[in-house]
């Protein structure tokens, strides 16, 4: 499809690999797709003046999704939005675009976070790792089959250690790019900074397309255990200022940044590093010479956005596809030959929806055996449970099931904060009673049993709250309960799921958070005889009343921290932990590491529903 790429800087071709390209393009299923926006492309528009439209397709944050499959439900993936996932779906879209535009007018790239996120990916990194099995990682196999031209490194590429990443890089028939990832010993690039591909139109000289790979520098914190002493992470903007001019000098007619970094400036690690986590917008504004950016990391869908470069006034195109292969970004770049060089004359982008097409059977067949191995894993025994834990009553009484979630969340954040300025703060955790039907049985426990406690794809964060803010948080949570006129007995449905102005038909369980601490240190009562906003009583830590100015770290999920449920203070609170770790996988790993789970080790009754100090009697 294209000639071999030129390696950026001519220094390190990657961590011990020399890439080759297979040039494989699978024949997609013959399906009717939505009309493709943008021009179909042409090599000549007007007599004697070569013009060309290049279409660059992009994915990001695939997170190990090859098939449209939910391994925890052991069924095809389905969500309330009707989205589908996986590279098998993406492949059908890619094949259709190639057919529509002409294969020689198209390229395919990725913005990172590839090898982590599903049991399929986990299995080949941890259970039967590619470092030992000799198998090709299913993501490498699928991406090779789709004939990717390049991919940026994502922060989750480092989750399983550098050995797994090195093998994945060797297996990939496309370069992994990371211009701001440096060798800690030499200060030189540890991975290819950029690659330049050659596209040959029917008329005019070859077009040289440069892809610059950049990744969020937070990996220095999130994966410190794997990268410290080996890799260092520079700023996205800082490294781009070096390499974009170098790429132009090397003959790149087009420069596209593959930026594993969100568009709008923010940092979840505060001042721990001098560089922002999400800097793709800043990249467009501050570094001249970039034509377009494929962004990622923040799991947002941005079909098309233009940002003006502050120095040149050039409009830079940014697009970001929805994660897990739910969308495919399609960038159309119009070029015209002027004075012997190709010049960009127009830019546009849109996204295609994977839910509109069937899976490519070639990709399905390619990973069929690995898929079945992953299915067998999630249905396998992960540990043993000393006594059954049910979530049936967890919405109105302290239960071991929710305590398990909070124990894992709090332990994870506390461990990550060790040795930092926040290490001495008490760590609490908040979790909702997501699934009333969840049961971890006594005896053998499967991966799926553990996962039933947590049915959402949330990631874990840690924020700092004061005692008064913690009380406000609990008061908001207590809106979930209806008022009562005595200690009962009451039916559970007459106490829970209270209607509110924002939930007129009743507050759903996932908007009620139970807060706990390590070693049963936090205790409180919710008095349902009191008006909303005045229900939290006897709030104490280690038996001492919580002071308004006392500081805590609260572990909670990304939905809540980003404003889901409109809980007070959480969106503005300082973030001290955000490694994008999936809470469900943390639970599975916690059980597997201990082998035997005994709820007596972490469960106690630390909160109660009361009326005037008397515990409510509730009958389900």
Can you offer a commentary on this structure?
This protein has two domains: 3-15 and 49-375, Purple Acid Phosphatase, chain A, domain 2 (4-Layer Sandwich), CATH 3.60.21; 380-619, 5'-Nucleotidase, C-terminal domain (5'-nucleotidase,  domain 2). 23% of the residues lie in helices and 27% in strands. The chain has 16 helices and 34 strands. The strands form nine sheets. The chain has a seven-stranded mixed sheet with strand order 1-9-10-12-13-15-14, covered by helices on one side. Strands 7-6-5-2-16-17 form a six-stranded mixed sheet, covered by helices on one side. A five-stranded mixed sheet has the order 25-20-29-23-30. Helix 12 (400-417) crosses helix 16. It is elongated and about 90 Å long. Residues 387-571 form the 5'-Nucleotidase C-terminal domain. Residues 1-37 form the signal peptide. It catalyses: a ribonucleoside 3'-phosphate + H2O = a ribonucleoside + phosphate; a nucleoside 2',3'-cyclic phosphate + H2O = a nucleoside 3'-phosphate + H(+). It is found in: Cell envelope.
